[in-house]
């Protein structure tokens, strides 16, 4: 057991899989010699060689297309997109190819890729270093989408993603790489070293895809969250004193609908939070799921707390970010709403 | 600062002939048979630049093999290639007819281009992987892949290994080294490079060969393929089938009026060959050269196959709307089947009667295969793949939400 | 007034705008000399010349990127993506550029493009000629998304889309190009010539973006539909005898939430139908919107009837297509559900 | 079929030197000053192929202008360029310091590359449109765009015309012919071609110039730009700034070891020039040539500017992790500021004292501008753009759902 920051836990997962599986290769922009702009592959080229960990040309479409071909050959590529904001040039290979290969070839060819990318804001990255495009991936049949909120989960989920025989999009909340975050940028961050969930086993372990985790048990309202918003939701619950049950979804597809149903059936109230823009965000699918599964349990309308339907602004990012104040206000509203 | 002059003009390339006009292929630069040099396979891309403007041809007007590219190849092999091309053509004709009869929803013919896929299929080794477009059925036929299996895919019947999921012609035949065809243009081009890089990473000996049409070279994945192939010296053959047309747009719309497609290789330091795609022996020779180059760690080769799409783009297309009806007849590089047959005759390995017999035999074979395949079902009789297969193979294991949806479908039935 | 098929009405809209606005240009794959694989630009190059109507290289990313540059210059490009299934290579230019230009330059540069593309199945097109990716577009702030269900709307909405100073994605239900469709492939289609909504004024007119149309007034259940599914919903209502109010949204973003609220407040029941895959489809956003606006009016759970979460199959496309039987079953369910 | 030989090897390009090693630029082919020929501007792309392997240089070791590319240019113009480069460098230094002090969130310097943007800015005409990357601040400074306005963008303060929405350096200055910078690499490259096509369609006389880094040439939009520019003969200059590095990856990772970036033009039939980007006079000459070519309907020109990124990639980057600390000092093409100053001295139009005075004056100017801009607010004091601006300019008119969301934000405040 070692305490690790989230980027270190991610590196540990990749390291242990490179060690276990000779067919695994790692590549992307600046991931080789340099070790990645967020250091997630630091030292791995030195340890495993250029044959298995290397830099690529700057072409997200090329990176994913190459990975699809390598997967068809029988390798297990783990690629990094430097920021999720730059995945769009690679979407055709991801949607039309990686996600379709098994289906259209009736299993003759498959694409066991893992596509890692940092998501979310809070680092003054402006509109092209802050996006959260998870909703797009979850609309694509044939893709799985995973997003951790702690170093422990990051390692266990990433190992499961790499071992999965289908393409998995692995989203890394960049605001959490170095520490837990309660949504208050002015407060000093709690480094993972001082956080219980910063304890990460050194050995190999996996967390199955599709199982949510209850971060805070509560009786009055269910908060569905993932990634950076999990810590924000916990902070909002603490501040408002609302007895919220904070469900960390961890995997968006497959989705742990049983855990969602259990919690909302109990609380009868639900607040859904994400950092992405609201319209057609993953919160919409969650809201649909909850009302399909729990309609007769719902006491009050489900609420969404999300990023605004605008690009992520640079200077005003904390007015954009759905912080504890906004989540707290929603918690109060659902508690006070007429039933 | 410059002083500002006349108004700018907008240039839109125009084909040499439109419907009603005389076909005109004077825009093609055609080197004579044997004229284009043949460097060793370890030549660098920079040293090979001139080949991108040449035209590798082997067969002369008398049907004899001439020049440095004349391959060492026996008549038996050539007759096999001839049979495969004749079979491909008969297969196309029959399947086009079947589509008109409503037995399949769609078809795409390869008339005039058969040599490009057939010859390379017989050159590459077992285990190599071909990343085709929808017009390389010749590859499968050359490898004697069962015609019945191909037809079952076209008819989407119960024996279709792809469970009716894919449109006709979108074959996937791993055992014949034939990668699953995508409906999205050019995606396979970079995938082939990735497959080849993987083979190198694994220290394997297998190489890849990827195909794209001249029109689809404009897609991003063409550039991705060349960039990655060059940077990592991938053991791959990058085939550009320049059949002059991309549905209704002629090769100039893809930039072909400004420079050859083979020359696209130059800027990446990749060796680029321009080859007569209707000259079976030239296709063999250039494919061998590129394959040896790849297999001996000398890197990728881009080959522009100069040919002509004699068929309509697909059964949804009517070429008479955008090109002279008889343009194919004026094509200066002839018909690959006739030219190979003429060569075999010229070297005393073939004659008229044997050809007649071949055609008749092939027609019988195709007819028999069609009869059998139709027996398993066609779009007409509705003996189609099972509806429950819709939900298979989306993932390795079917997740809960797909099981729920399948149950929902079952309840409705 | 002339009766027109939908593709003819689309051509009429482009024709009248080419005539009115010298800055408008039309380009895409096979749209010039040939007039488009669905004939939507037939004859326009002959009429307006190659300078304004021309064929392009086969590169969706290039087509949209070029259009963004032309828009910045001051032209008004109307481009065609041959099938919506092929828009993915162009998504980066659409999402990162066209939809962001005005925002990031504070209005110095804008992208007044219209990106037309055929959507939907029912023509044996298999997984790469049948897709309905509208949900992806509606998640992108800065984009508008429009989809007509009749020739009359097609012309009026397309003119409004072209005149709009922001990028508009104009989705054309290809199954409706030649006639109305009730969802029964074996029945002869009703050519638009025999359909009241096939009557299209010859002169210029526009239908404002963001206004839904009631296709069938009803008291018992609201059906939210668009494109091909509007006719299917009408057929399902007729068959089941359920007094459904069929709302044709016409514009997904901006969305006519007032019309939705009015109808559901009245009926207390809602069925949402679309052809796209279910998870994170636009139906999720509609369901979220309805429960946010009408929670206290809802008698029973909202239902979604959609394409399955699989690629669009070729041979089994009518098992995939959410036809009148499935919509009708949902109508019955919401009528019979416990309140 | 080929017989199968030795295992394949995977090739990964490696830079000539890593941290701790001796800088080594022997991989660069460097023609002597005046050695590369200068064809007329109506040359075809095919006729110009050799230029892609040359290196257009004007300044010799004595600082004199030699050879066919030596431009006709007066000292006044050169001093203006020198001042702009010196100002750009001073501006960079000060803004890097301001970022370290927390006044801005981010910055990107252009040290060593100033000539590329400054010289072309003074060559192109008013009304022409430049499609820059984040490293062409020199263009704005050369056109005397107010430094204060640029700094207000960097500080995201109340006077930032972009309302704090954009990261620092992502300027948009339509009035200076400077297109809004995108955070997404290479997208502007094809947009520039589209803008140029539009100018031709409109029968206008304005041309476009688009810029991309050598690393970003691997992106799809590089290929799209060249394909469309070639097919439609767009009046555009396509600049590839080869500063040897793309964050931590050297130019070989983008394919630069296999062929020059200028040679990428060849396959499209576009004229490609390889130019010493640190030779101010060469930049002027090549830019004039390409601009005249575009304006006289002779089509696009691709120019590879050979230079070196002396600064860190950005304030988030630490180059000592991936390249020799002093690599810049070993750069064989020198410093553009020193070389232009030396030329002016050599022709008797400049001297040490005047240079000292220039530097001092420029520092004063930049300092004064910074003082003023900081007065309007910086990230430190939080006098930032208005939060309500978040919702403006998403659309021409704010739709209902955005008004509702803005109200929601207001209620919370
Ligand atoms: C990404 C994408 N864009 C457009 C299409 C539609 N389309 C199918 S084939 C074709 C023409 C391709 O021409 P070419 O590449 O020359 O190949 P050929 O048909 O001549 O063999 C087009 C535009 C597609 N299938 N995929
Ligand atoms: C589409 C995209 N992918 C990746 C990045 C991240 N990124 C920013 S700059 C850069 C390196 C660019 O290098 P080069 O093109 O050589 O330009 P230079 O920085 O040297 O001027 C990378 C990878 C990005 N901004 N956009
Ligand atoms: Mg073609
Ligand atoms: Mg660079």
Strand segment count of chain B: 7
Order of neighbouring strands in the sheet with most strands of chain A: 3-2-4-5-7-6-14
Biggest interchain interface, per-side counts: B-D, 65 and 66 residues
Please indicate the percent range of residues of chain B in DSSP E strands (runs of 2 or more).
5-15%
The number of distinct β-strands of chain A equals 16
Low-confidence stretches of chain A: none
Give the spatial strand order of the biggest sheet of chain B.
1-2-3-7-6
- Biggest sheet overview of chain A: 7 strands, mixed
Instruction: Please bin the fraction of helical residues of chain B.
Output: 25-40%
What characteristic shape of chain B results from the CA principal axes?
globular
Write up this protein.
- The complex is a heterotetramer, with two copies of chain A (339 residues) and two copies of chain B (413 residues).
- With 339 residues, chain A is α/β, with parallel strands linked by helices.
- Helices cover 35% and strands 19% of the residues of chain A.
- Chain A has a seven-stranded mixed β-sheet, with helices on both faces. Chain A has a five-stranded mixed β-sheet with strand order 11-13-12-15-16, with helices on both faces. Chain A has a two-stranded antiparallel sheet with strand order 1-10.
- The longest helix of chain A has 15 residues, at 6-20.
- The radius of gyration of chain A is 19 Å and the shape is globular.
- The N and C termini of chain A lie far apart (47 Å).
- The model of chain A has no long low-confidence stretch (mean pLDDT 97).
- With 413 residues, chain B is of the alpha/beta class.
- Chain B has ten helices and seven strands.
- Chain B has helices at residues 75-100, 114-123, 137-142, 147-155, 187-201, 220-231, 280-295, 336-346, 352-375, 400-412; strands spanning 129-131, 208-213, 236-242, 245-246, 249-250, 271-276, 301-306.
- In chain B, strands 1-2-3-7-6 form a five-stranded parallel β-sheet, sandwiched between helices. Chain B has a two-stranded antiparallel ribbon with strand order 4-5.
- In chain B, helix 7 links the parallel strand 6 (271-276) and strand 7 (301-306).
- In chain B, helix 2 crosses helix 7 (280-295).
- At the B-D interface, helix 5, helix 6 and helix 7 of B face helix 5, helix 6 and helix 7 of D.
- The structure holds thiamine diphosphate (TPP) (2 copies) and magnesium ion (MG) (2 copies).
- One thiamine diphosphate (TPP) sits between chains D (133, 135, 183-185, 213-216, 241, 243, 245-247, 309, 313) and A (29, 58, 82, 86, 89).
- One magnesium ion binds next to strand 4 of chain D.
């Amino acid at each position: 057991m070692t305490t690790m920051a989230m980027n270190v836990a991610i590196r540990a997962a990749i390291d242990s899989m490179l060690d276990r599986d000779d067919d695994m290769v790692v590549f992307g922009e600046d991931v080789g010699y340099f070790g990645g702009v967020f250091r997630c592959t630091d030292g791995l080229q030195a340890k495993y060689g250029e044959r298995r960990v290397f830099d690529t040309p700057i072409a997200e479409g090329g990176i994913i297309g190459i990975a699809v071909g390598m997967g068809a050959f029988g390798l297990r590529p783990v690629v990094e997109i430097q920021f999720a904001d730059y995945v769009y040039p690679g979407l055709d290979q991801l949607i039309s190819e990686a996600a379709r290969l098994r289906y259209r070839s009736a299993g003759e060819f498959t694409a066991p890729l893992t596509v890692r990318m940092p998501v979310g804001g809070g680092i003054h990255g402006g509109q092209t270093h802050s996006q959260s495009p998870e909703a797009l991936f979850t609309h694509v049949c044939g893709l799985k989408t995973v997003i951790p909120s702690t170093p422990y989960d990051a390692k266990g989920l990433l190992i499961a993603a790499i071992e999965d025989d289908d393409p998995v999009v692995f989203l890394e909340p960049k605001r959490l790489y170095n520490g837990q975050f309660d949504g208050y940028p002015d407060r000093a961050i709690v480094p993972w070293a001082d956080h219980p969930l910063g304890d990460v086993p050194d050995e190999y372990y996996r967390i199955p895809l599709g199982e949510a985790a209850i971060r805070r048990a509560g009786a009055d309202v269910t908060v569905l969250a993932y990634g950076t918003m999990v810590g924000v939701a916990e902070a909002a619950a603490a501040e408002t004193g609302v007895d919220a049950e904070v469900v960390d979804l961890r995997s968006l597809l497959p989705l742990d609908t049983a855990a969602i149903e259990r919690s909302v059936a109990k609380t009868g109230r639900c607040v859904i939070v994400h950092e992405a823009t609201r319209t057609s965000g993953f919160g919409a699918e969650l809201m649909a799921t909850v009302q399909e599964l729990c309609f007769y349990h719902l006491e009050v309308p489900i609420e969404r707390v999300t990023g605004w339907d605008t690009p992520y602004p640079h200077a005003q990012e904390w007015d954009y970010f759905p912080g504890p104040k906004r989540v707290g206000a929603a918690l109060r509203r659902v508690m006070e709403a007429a039933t | 600062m410059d002083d500002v002059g006349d108004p700018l003009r907008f240039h839109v390339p125009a084909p040499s002939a439109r419907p009603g006009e005389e076909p005109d292929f004077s825009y093609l630069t055609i080197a004579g048979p044997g004229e284009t040099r043949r460097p060793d396979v370890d030549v660098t891309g920079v040293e090979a630049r001139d080949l991108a403007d040449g035209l590798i041809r082997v067969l002369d007007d008398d049907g004899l093999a001439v020049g440095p590219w004349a391959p060492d190849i026996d008549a038996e092999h050539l007759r096999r290639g001839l049979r495969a091309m004749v079979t491909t053509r008969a297969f196309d004709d029959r399947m086009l007819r079947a589509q008109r009869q409503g037995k399949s929803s769609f078809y795409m013919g390869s008339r005039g281009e058969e040599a490009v896929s057939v010859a390379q299929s017989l050159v590459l080794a077992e285990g190599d992987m071909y990343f085709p477009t929808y017009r390389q059925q010749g590859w499968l036929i050359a490898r004697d892949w069962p015609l019945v299996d191909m037809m079952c895919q076209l008819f989407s019947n119960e024996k279709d290994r792809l469970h009716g999921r894919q449109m006709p012609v979108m074959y996937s035949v791993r055992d014949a080294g034939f990668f699953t065809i995508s409906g999205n243009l050019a995606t396979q081009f970079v995938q082939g490079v990735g497959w080849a890089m993987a083979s190198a990473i694994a220290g394997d000996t297998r190489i890849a060969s990827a195909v794209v049409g001249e029109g689809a070279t404009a897609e991003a994945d063409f550039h991705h393929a060349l960039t990655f192939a060059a940077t990592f010296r991938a053991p791959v053959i990058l085939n550009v089938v320049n059949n002059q047309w991309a549905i209704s747009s002629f090769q100039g719309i893809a930039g072909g009026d400004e420079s050859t497609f083979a020359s696209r290789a130059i800027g990446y330091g990749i060796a680029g060959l321009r080859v007569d795609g209707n000259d079976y022996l030239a296709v063999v020779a250039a494919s061998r050269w590129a394959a040896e180059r790849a297999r001996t760690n000398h890197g990728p080769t881009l080959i522009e196959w100069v040919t002509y799409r004699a068929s309509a783009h697909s059964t949804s297309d009517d070429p008479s709307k955008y090109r002279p009806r008889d343009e194919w007849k004026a094509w200066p590089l002839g018909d690959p089947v006739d030219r190979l047959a003429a060569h075999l005759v010229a070297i005393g390995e073939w004659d008229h009667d044997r050809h007649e017999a071949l055609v008749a035999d092939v027609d019988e074979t195709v007819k028999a295969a069609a009869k059998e395949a139709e027996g398993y079902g066609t779009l007409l009789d509705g003996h189609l793949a099972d509806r429950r297969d819709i939900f298979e193979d989306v993932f390795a294991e079917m997740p809960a939400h797909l099981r729920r949806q399948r149950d929902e479908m079952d309840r409705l039935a």
